[in-house]
Design brief:
The protein is of the alpha+beta class and 699 residues long. The chain is 29% helix and 28% strand.
């Protein structure tokens, strides 16, 4: 039998499902898109596989592996659909969710105007149990098993099937929590249970509680979704006439993938699955093009996701949020705004124009889809202004400009604006929404946005690229080949990765190297077991060590790398020095050399990495002049209606240059080049957009 050589990456978005397949023998990369099917996402998933295999001329028997980015967990949390959830905590701490951090979000100058969101578990569904551990894991009072049985019976009687357990200081010793879990299953076998010592072995009770509850809340959905797709995948391939289990990986928020059979046990790790894949795909493309400082802008049908990439590595955080819920798991630092192609434009009660966060999604979609949409969207504004063609996906989805016009005329009348003025206003509000998100991940983190190249991708990510250069003063813009499929491509570039954390609080001058070594060895042991179960032998496994450090008395930490090898005083001092430097870069000062200020170690982290073969990006042939790719022209509106040349991107070669106004079209995306801008094709086929006066500097 021929070896299975095709690897497939599938990113399911709110409007479209994106598919990329790579042939590991020839290096050929094929991309396609298909409409998402919200009622049953597996339908769009399988339709996409069939479509891409047909383009390759292959059958399901040739599939070697499938990697998937999913928004199931993200959407459940963003939409606030968390219900029928119970919580068990230590006696005396039943109000930990209500007390929270007592912090008022930015934008509310006075807490009087801020309404605290409903907590994830109502007070009447919280149960406490007796027993108590100290911060070092020693037992102060034994676990009261009778109170645990009482709590389990309470949830069983009320049909509350999903339960999160977070006991005080269980990060130091999981014994009490593990016993609570066992008793819950004895009394209530049908329950779904998450315990904090498995989800997040890290101190800070509120964040650990919320993270555990979010894990429990999404576990049934992720389990059903992943198992459904895994079962349906078996239909695609056979061995000796019998259905075959195709290796199936799911993207995690930390920039790695994990097998489907394992990810159902740690579902919270998928909460930013899709955006993480896009950031990694863009990072690889930008790195090949020689760009070190990158902002990624992933525009889909429902939202736009932005992140920072420096020297090929997306920024990671453990201070992320999904909707109203803080999440302490490691995740790529992504900021999401409701500014996708399907985002709805509407008038506020104060008669001002807003765009998003509500979206028309895939069904019914924008007005111009002709599928029953009733409100104008960003896509409607683009098609009305001639900035996108009157069809999508190479003609598969025709767009009705007249329907878009009628919707925007109604909105323009409400706002007392002209038609074009209203459509441009919709795009301007959307551009500023995106710009503010980009500022949030740069300026608010001490980075100068003007030092970065913007990599735009996704179906709608490149539509406002020129405007973002103007608003933010960006260096330039890079638009990859097949930008609508970068997230799916990213799924084929990432390694299997698992993260492990253990709180270990100690002053630097009192920390013993052997204690640190022992803790790192324990975490590495967990990582080793997981990688072995994923099928990686000892020669393939890689490990990465980091630690969270702070100055004694500070409330929050800074993560720094810890060198490989046996832990020595020098390795510890190097980590402390890295902390001083990182603190200065973040906050403008440090206490290096001040004997009155002590460095404190807080959390130790080990990542276990199983490398997966990455696709190789190929250079494209030299161009013969952009005129050879010109397909015609149409009227497009920028500051006024102008005759605008249109180009077929697939016919452009390296070195070709296009001056705005122009529109570059391809199967999965459209790139408007505004007047005063120029676009140059680089050796990897990327479009490099810059102000015309700066274009000579584009490599």
């Amino acid at each position: 039998m021929e070896p299975r050589k095709i690897r497939v990456g599938i990113d399911t978005g709110g409007t479209f499902t994106d598919i990329v397949a790579v042939d590991d023998e020839t290096g050929a990369i094929v991309t396609t898109k298909t409409p998402s099917t919200p009622a049953d996402p597996a339908e769009g998933f399988l339709a996409g596989i069939e479509k891409v295999l047909a383009k390759l001329g292959e059958s399901g028997d040739s599939i070697g592996a499938v990697s998937h980015g999913t928004t199931v967990a993200t959407n459940k949390l963003l939409e606030g659909k968390v219900e029928n959830l119970g919580f068990i905590t230590t006696e005396g701490y039943e109000h930990v969710l209500e007390i929270a951090r007592q912090s008022v979000p930015d934008g509310y100058g006075n807490s009087y105007f801020w309404v605290k969101p409903e907590r994830i578990v109502p007070a009447d569904r919280v149960r406490t149990v007796g027993g108590r551990l100290s911060f070092d894991g020693s037992e102060i009072r034994p676990l009261d098993e009778e109170s645990v049985r009482s709590a389990a019976q309470f949830f069983k009687d009320r049909g509350i099937r999903t339960i999160g357990v977070c006991l005080m200081h269980s990060y130091a010793d999981p014994t009490h929590e593990e016993r609570v879990r066992d008793i819950l299953f004895e009394v209530f076998p049908d329950a779904t249970v998450s315990i904090s010592s498995q989800v997040l072995r890290e101190y800070r009770e509120y964040e650990r509680s919320i993270t555990t509850l979010v894990d429990a809340a999404v576990k049934p959905n992720i389990r059903n979704y992943v198992n459904n797709i895994a079962n349906r995948l078996r239909e695609f391939s056979t061995t000796d006439g019998e259905p075959r289990d195709i290796p199936f990986y799911v993207m995690k928020s930390n920039g790695g993938v994990l097998s489907a059979k394992e990810v159902v046990h740690q579902p919270i790790t998928t909460v930013l699955s899709g955006p993480a894949a896009g950031a990694l795909g863009a990072a690889l493309i930008a790195d090949a093009a020689g760009v070190e400082q990158v902002l990624t802008c992933d525009g889909g049908g429902t939202s736009t996701d932005v992140t920072v990439v420096v020297r090929g590595e997306p920024a990671l955080t453990t201070e992320g949020r999904v909707g109203n819920y803080p999440s302490k798991i490691p995740m790529i630092d992504v900021v999401t705004v409701g500014a996708g192609g399907g985002s709805i434009a509407w008038m506020t009660p104060e008669r001002t124009l807003r765009v998003g966060p509500q979206s028309a999604g895939a069904d019914p979609g924008p007005l111009c889809y002709g599928k029953g949409g009733s409100e104008p969207t960003i896509t409607d504004a683009h098609v009305l202004l001639g900035r996108i063609p009157p069809h999508l996906l190479g003609g598969e989805i025709p767009l009705d400009t007249e329907l878009a016009r009628k919707g925007l005329e109604e909105l323009a009348t409400q706002l007392s604006l002209g038609l074009e003025e209203c459509a441009v206003g919709v795009l301007e509000v959307s551009a500023w929404n995106q710009a503010n998100a980009l500022r949030q991940i740069t300026v608010k983190r001490g980075l100068d946005v003007r030092d970065f190249t913007l990599v735009t991708f996704g179906g709608s990510g490149s539509l406002l690229a020129c405007r973002l250069v103007d608003i933010l003063g960006l260096k330039d813009v890079l638009v990859p080949l097949n930008p609508g499929n970068v997230s799916a491509f990213g799924l084929l570039t990432v390694d299997v990765r698992n993260d492990y954390v253990q709180t270990h609080v100690s002053r630097h001058d009192r920390l013993k190297a052997e204690d640190l070594q022992s803790q790192f060895d324990a975490l590495a042991g967990e990582a080793e077991i997981a990688l072995a179960e994923e099928g990686f032998d000892e020669t393939q496994r890689k490990y990465s060590r980091t630690a969270d450090l702070r100055y004694l008395g500070q409330a929050f930490e800074v993560r720094v790398p810890v060198a490989e090898g046996t832990v020595t005083a020098q390795i510890m001092d190097d980590a402390a020095e890295a902390f001083h430097q990182a603190h200065r870069e973040l906050y403008g000062y440090d206490f290096r050399g001040d004997p009155s200020q002590h460095v404190e170690w807080v959390n130790l982290r080990v990542s276990g990495i199983g490398p997966i073969k990455r696709p190789t990006l190929k250079e494209i042939p030299a161009g013969t002049g952009a005129d050879n790719a010109r397909t015609g022209s149409r009227q497009s509106y920028f500051d006024s209606w102008v005759e605008t040349a249109t180009y077929d991107r697939t016919l452009l070669g390296a070195g070709d240059v296009i001056e705005g106004p122009a529109v570059i079209e391809e199967f999965s995306s459209t790139v408007p080049i505004h007047p005063g801008f120029s676009a140059r094709i680089d050796t990897f086929g990327n479009i490099r957009i810059s102000k015309s006066s700066d274009s000579n500097g584009v490599k």
